[in-house]
Design goal:
By secondary structure, the chain is mostly helical. About 80% of the residues lie in helices and about 0% in strands. The chain has helices at about 10, 15-50, 60-80, 85-105, 110-125, 130-135, 145-155, 160-175, 180-185, 190-200, 205-210, 235-240, 240-270, 275-290, 295-305, 305-325, 330-355, 360-395, 395-405, 415-425. The relative contact order is 0.16.
Length: about 425
């Protein structure tokens, strides 16, 4: 990874940047519960309406499809108009989608559930691109840490998830609502404060990224890189650096693994008779793995290198998938889903920082958008295959598929290691 020789003063985070990061983190804390609800309860919502385990992966597939559909267009909006407009557009879509999902469960409509989940997930996928904004506002040496700080906000959102499900299990029937529909009526109450917080961010992070030296005294851009306000984007050029391709492969592997495990965890625990609250609690552990350690993982990727965090992270997802698929008892499954979340966090934070290191601010939204689109495509395929595979061959077969997809970075690892040896031999 290329680093510049800026002085320690150049790395000291100005108060304005700290304020913006805090606002993004708080916004994530309000919005995080919605995605946990979609991932954790989505398969059970489909199961409740279709009575078919073969379709249980539909909700996770829709979430992944949304990421595939919006990641690059949102990146283009971010590069053209700034980071805030794209994030706010996403939150507005999520607001509408959550309301639609509540109605879908009350009306027992699979079509409405499908449309509502797609709109909600598209909105949340767009809003989660705020991590691009985080990379804009700091020098390369602080990007992993900044990504970790913003992602940590999702951890605070976990506190809303189990209580919402407990409330729903206890009072939904009495109030005349579906137990899986009532929580969606509460999600807009969390999204609205998130919108307010994003509006308070000033100036737009893209403007900061284009002028880092104005915010960090003594900052010197990496050698050979000059920021351009406008550029003709070429995806072949964007994907030319080997580190970017390795980062995308690692992120796809972790995302594909997690898509399978999100379906598998809910079905395994439901199959063993655990309550909605117990399933939500297990998913909370998964989310804790995704977000509780993002700051140390980001710090570690800044200190020892992106690849040394990213590749082991993918390995951890393989171990977690095995625990979910094979023992099938509550605590091994919960530990496994936690490890999948932890491995995904390591791969995602390091991969995003890696891509940011090798892309210009004016193109960063689109380049990271390509990364997210690829991860979304892999996750769609994995989620669609999971339900039929479980119906045909059982739960363990799906776990084996999750482990297999995690081997994807191995295709590029020899080239990466040869490149690193060549650079070491050249003394660079």
């Amino acid at each position: 990874m290329s680093q510049n020789a800026s002085s320690p003063a150049a790395l000291k985070m100005p108060p304005l940047i700290k304020r913006n990061l805090a606002l993004f983190t708080l916004s994530q804390s309000f919005n995080g519960a919605g995605m946990q609800l979609a991932y954790g309860m989505g398969p059970l919502m489909v199961l409740a309406l279709t009575k078919s385990a073969a379709l249980a992966g539909l909700s996770v597939a829709i979430i992944a499809l949304s990421r595939f559909l919006v990641a690059y267009p949102v990146g283009r909006i971010m590069d053209a108009y700034g980071r805030k407009p794209a994030i706010l557009l996403g939150l507005a879509l999520a607001l509408f989608g959550a309301t639609t999902l509540a109605f879908a469960m009350e009306l027992g409509s699979l079509a409405l559930l499908t449309g509502g989940m797609l709109v909600f997930a598209m909105g949340m996928s767009a809003a989660q691109q705020l991590r691009i904004a985080a990379t804009d506002m700091v020098p390369p040496q602080r990007r992993g840490q900044a990504l970790g700080i913003v992602a940590l906000g999702s951890l605070a959102g976990l506190v809303f998830f189990p209580p919402m499900m407990r409330l729903s299990e206890t009072y939904a029937v009495t109030l005349g609502f579906h137990p899986l529909g009532l929580p969606w009526m509460l999600i807009p109450l969390l999204i609205l404060p998130g919108i307010v917080l994003i509006r308070l961010v000033r100036p737009d992070p893209k403007e900061i990224g284009m002028n880092l030296a104005d915010y960090y005294p003594g900052y010197v851009p990496p050698a050979g890189r000059a920021e351009r306000a406008h550029t003709e984007f070429n995806w072949r050029r964007a994907l030319a650096p080997l580190p970017i391709r390795l980062a995308i492969a690692s992120n796809c592997a972790a995302q594909g693994n997690m898509a399978v495990i999100m379906v598998l965890t809910s079905l395994v625990l439901h199959d063993h008779g655990h309550s909605l609250t117990a399933i939500a609690f297990s998913h909370m552990f998964h989310s804790a793995g995704m977000f509780a350690f993002t700051i140390p993982l980001g710090w570690l990727s800044d200190r020892i290198g992106r690849g040394r965090v990213m590749i082991p992270g993918v390995g951890v997802t393989m171990v977690g998938a095995g625990l979910v698929a094979f023992p099938q008892a509550y605590w091994p499954v919960t530990l496994g889903t936690f490890l999948v979340g932890l491995g995904w966090a390591a791969a995602n934070v390091a991969a995003t920082a890696y891509i940011a290191d090798h892309s210009e601010t004016a193109e960063r939204g689109r380049t990271i958008g390509l990364n997210d689109s690829a991860a979304g495509a892999i996750a769609v395929v994995m989620a669609v295959l999971t339900g039929p595979l479980i119906a045909l061959s059982g739960l363990a077969a799906a776990g084996t598929m999750a482990i297999a997809i995690s081997l994807l970075p191995a295709l590029l690892l020899p080239a990466y290691l040869a490149r690193r040896r060549g650079r070491q031999a050249a003394g660079t």
